[in-house]
Amino acid sequence: MRPPTAIVTSRGAKRLAAGHPWVFRSDLAEAPAGAAGVVRITDPRGQALGWAWWSPASEIALRRVERDSDATIDGAWWRARLSHALARRAPLASDTNACRLVHGEGDGLPALVVDRYDRWLVVQFLSAAVEAQRALVVDALQELAAPAGILARNDASVRAREGLPRTVELVAGDVPEEIEVNEHGVTYLAAPWTGQKTGAFLDQRENRVMLRAHARGRALDVFSYHGSFALHLARGADTVTAVDASAQALERARANAARNGIGTLACVEADAFDYLRDAAARGECFDVIALDPPALAKNRGSIAGALRGYKELNLRAMRLLAPGGMLFTASCSYHVTKPMFLEVVREAAADSQRPMILRALTGQPLDHPEVLTIPETGYLKGLLLENGEN
Prior knowledge:
Number of helices: 11
CATH topology of the largest domain: Rossmann fold
Number of strands: 20
Shape: globular
Structural class: alpha/beta
Radius of gyration: 23 Å
CATH architecture of the largest domain: 3-Layer(aba) Sandwich
CATH superfamily of the largest domain: Vaccinia Virus protein VP39
Helix content: 25-40%
Largest sheet: 7 strands, mixed
Distance between the termini: 75 Å
Number of domains: 3
Strand content: 25-35%
């Protein structure tokens, strides 16, 4: 039987040729017949362009997954593509039992996220086409990773734009409410059923270790959540203050500190902006600061407000930093680009009247690959700064 075919406009074909897998509805010359799933794609002249995920309800109508028009998207194809993704993460096994196994477009598997927490997997099917292939994905993951259980965290808002329900459901085996993660010698509990993202923030793992190498004296972890930076800072600092607006998150931070035998962590429930302002008014000073806010820009329309927020946060943090102290500041807002973030931190440094030295510019770790031709795969950027005052 002839497979469904989608014809893209010349503009859509040009976008694909430039290395971006998305074709928007406005660049769809002829929609394929049938429900969401795998379709063949061609340009207006009939030139084969490979295979794509087809999502009838989405603004992103097509996501190309295979350039070879003679390929067959079946169980063997899924096993090969997933095996390649898993092999990329092999170097992480000696340092942690939790990582992202599939980062969507970054691994050539658009709209699919797979995170490993010890012996369990948490997956996200973020498009109608990937949802339609759930059985193939689950079978391949069970064969390749042999997990004790697989949980589908399908509660992401993007599923609504695909015409899909938002649910959290067990798809294989059993998955506990909490899973112990070991990260470079620090342990904490991930919450796959209810936690942020798929249960924990895995993308800052290497940055936490980097800042830990500079830990000393008084340390501050702002937007601490479950204490991820604080736990690492406590390995070298005399005291660590963890600040978060969520009392529930701080309870978990305290529990994680106890799990690691840390008795030097103080948790403060407060708005980050207010805390930084009040701490400066009190004349407080810190030797190491971690500033890792949630995404302040959810869309293009919120970029200006986000930049104001990032500047204020960084300015206040810089004013709390001791001479020779280290500040790690990050943005996970995709809409705030690397140049934008660097510029707004530069402006904050100028206003702080402190000689802030750039020690490192960081991006995403090995398990969150950023493809240069697909900007959407990259969202995380960080700066390690030193207060150059004597």
